Amino acid sequence: MKVKDVMTKDVQAVTVPGSRNEAMELIRELEVSALPVLNENTKKFVGMIRLRDFFEDPDENQLGMLVNRDVVTVGPEQSLEDAARIMLREGVRRLSVVKGSKLEGIITVRDILRRAIAERKKETPVSECMQNSVTTIWERTPLKVALEILHLSGERALPVLDDEAHPVGMIGDEDIIAVSEVKTEEKTELMRGRSETEKWAWDSEDRIYITKRSLTPPDKEVREVMSSDLITITKRTSASKCAELMRENEVHQVPVLSGSKLIGMISDEDLLKALTE
Fold first, then answer.
1. Please, what is the average pLDDT of the chain?
2. 3-119 and 126-178+219-276 share one CATH topology?
3. pLDDT tens digits along 22-77
4. Which residue intervals define the domain CBS in the entry (predicted)?
5. Checking CA distances to 116, which of 42, 132, 146, 184 falls within 20 to 30 Å?
6. What angle do CA 213, 50, 245 make, to 5 degrees?
7. Domain residue spans in the chain?
8. What pLDDT sits at residue 162?
9. Which strand ranges, in their side-by-side order, compose the sheet holding 34-39?
10. Contact (Cβ atoms closer than 8 angstroms) between residue 83 and residue 95
11. For domain 126-178+219-276, is the CATH number 3.40.50.300?
12. CB atoms within 10 A of CB 173
């Protein structure tokens, strides 16, 4: 089975030259966390832009300065095993499929996992491949703080705990994007300084007006926005059954419980490793 057999061919992309505003609004509209970037004139693949890039460099407006150009790609004729190995080695959930310098499509962990489920059954319990160290968020955490925790943890979604430390939901980038507003901020900066003796020159100072648009979470708590339809498993659940649950419910990670206590997490990347070994 080759990459071209399971990849998504109709891919939305942004172009350079372009602005952060255009890319940010498309990411928000599609409710995704990353988009491929193409050269506007040649349509050649340039790289990827991630949601977190906007937050890490809030003052940069040129898309060309924000795009990640050093990204790993895969060819349409390569095998699914090749794509899986690249994803696991690089720690990424998606790969741009490029032939020459043309974007042919996108392949994700979910695409490969779906094929792996169809071809083989893995009865290995998730206890052998789950993550025992888990970053969590309290349900009363403000969304702005939750967004920072997500970025610092490097995760796209995290389990939410109530006052009794019981898991009650999941919060991720997409949940926050869906309720965030694109706000416009304008500030004025002087292009040159002046001394105390130059008060007469105030009206002739050169000024630059900077307009910046940013994605701003509302003043809400995590519990108001989180996904509360929590899909959970136990440590004895098989890797294949867990993969089927992820596919059916369109989630990429699942909390592992012992009774009502959170004891770990398992992601589709963890399952990809287990199912392709």
1. 83
2. yes
3. 888 888 788 777 899 999 999 999 999 987 777 677 677 788 888 989 899 999 99
4. 7-65, 67-123, 130-189, 226-277
5. 132
6. 125
7. 3-119, 126-178+219-276, 181-216
8. 95
9. 14-16, 34-39, 45-50
10. yes
11. no
12. 21
